[in-house]
Amino acid sequence: MKLLDDSINVDSQVWDRLRKLEDRVIELFPKGDPSHDLLHLKRVLKTALFLAAIERGELEILIPAVLLHDIVQVPKNSPNRSAASEMAALKASEILEPLGWSNDDIQKIAQAVLEHSYSRGLTATSLESAILQDSDRLDALGAIGIMRMVACGTLMGTPFYEDSIDVFSKNTYEDRKYIIDHVFTKLIRLPDLMNFQWSKAEALKRFEFMKHFLRQLRAETQQSPLQSEKDAMRNLS
Ligand SMILES: [Fe+2]
Ligand SMILES: [Fe+2]
Q: With bands split at pLDDT 50, 70 and 90, how would you rate the model's confidence at 79?
């Protein structure tokens, strides 16, 4: 699989370095988790390039930050989870040094990698870091967000939902116990955390789709078929 497509507009020297970096990332990227794989990188990159075109982000910083942001992965249920982005930032610097990036640029890239993490709760200190944050967080929402959330929970053996409880009206949400609780412990906050207007609008759209999915899930799992039918009739009238 290729991560970079030929339409990326950078000078030939930068392009050369990016190609080498792409090969390294494909070689080193952790395997076995479909919620954090090369397809995730491709999607985040696509959104990041779109945002960079609007906001005039510097591609020489942004593209390496995207490619390297998840180069170290720590399981979600590990106590070291919040150290993952710090380790990724260190590893990013190690990978970039022999490929010809300047020290100044490496520092900016590593800082963006560090700041992308939701669990660390850092504010983005550069335009490129803000673009990476939004692009990565958008990939947690919408149809792909549902697939990633389920994939991630399944890896840890977490059940999909709490039996006989309406997910919209629970008192406490625990995503370590029930996968769909993740929508209410984290994903619901993402639209407000977006750095750019476009990402916020897109996040709200994707979150609306997730709510629609949850309503359908509730109808299929929590209500009697008769009740679901009554609700459906009411919605039609
Ligand atoms: Fe990450
Ligand atoms: Fe990511």
A: confident
Considering every ligand atom shown, identify the ligand nearest to the alpha carbon of residue 81 and give its number.
1
Those residues whose C-beta lies under 8 Å from the C-beta of residue 74, and which sit 6 or more positions away, are 80, 81, 83, 84, 87
Residues 57 and 25 in one domain: yes
Q: Which residues are within 5 Å of ligand 2 (an ion), measured at CB?
A: 70, 136
30 and 94 in a single domain? The answer is: yes
113 plus 19 within the same structural domain: yes
What are 3-16's pLDDT values in tens digits?
A: 999 999 999 999 99
Tokens found for residue 21:
């970096």
Write out the residues surrounding ion ligand 1, Cβ under 5 A.
70
How many Å lie between the centroid of ligand 2 and the Cα of residue 173? Answer: 23
Domain count, the chain: 2
| Ligand 2 centre distance from Cα of residue 46 (Å) | 13
- Which domain covers residue 51, as residue numbers? 12-123
Which CATH number does the domain housing residue 88 bear?
A: 1.10.472.50
Q: Is the full-model pTM beyond 0.70?
A: yes
Residue 109 lies in a domain: yes
Instruction: Starting from the CA of residue 132, give the closest ligand.
Output: 2
